[in-house]
Amino acid sequence: MPLVDDPLVCLCMHVPESEVVAAVRVGHRDLPAIREATGANTGCGDCAPDIEDLIDDVRNEAA
């Protein structure tokens, strides 16, 4: 079984980084939209800063 470098961004809901990045790329551009699209950040909430950083990173890629 190959190892995949796709860390979980939301441990509670088991959402990988790639899922959040994909959601941002299709137009989910803030934390509430990411919550709705992926389910991330609907558990304990500790991942909010990491998700917001990913949102910023993907937005900056496109600029």
What this model shows, in words?
It is a single chain. This protein is mostly helical. Helix 1 crosses helix 3. It contains three helices and two strands, in the order ββααα.
Gist of the model:
It is built from three helices and two strands. It is mainly alpha-helical and 63 residues long.
Question: Keywords, please?
Answer:
mainly alpha; 3 helices; single chain; about 60 residues; two-stranded antiparallel ribbon
Distance between the terminal alpha carbons, to the nearest Å?
Answer: 37 Å
Q: Work out the helix count.
A: 3
Radius of gyration: 11 Å
Low-confidence stretches: none
The chain-level structural class is mainly alpha
- Report the β-strand fraction as a percent range: 5-15%
- Shape descriptor: globular
Beta strands, count: 2
Tell me roughly what share of residues is in helical segments.
40-55%
* Most strands sheet: 2 strands, antiparallel
Biggest sheet, strands in spatial order? 1-2
Series of secondary-structure elements, N-terminal to C-terminal? EEHHH
Q: How confident is the prediction overall: mean pLDDT?
A: 93
Secondary structure layout:
Layout lengths: L7 E3 L4 E2 H9 L5 H8 L9 H15 L1
Antiparallel strand pairs: 1-2
Helix pairs in contact: 1-3
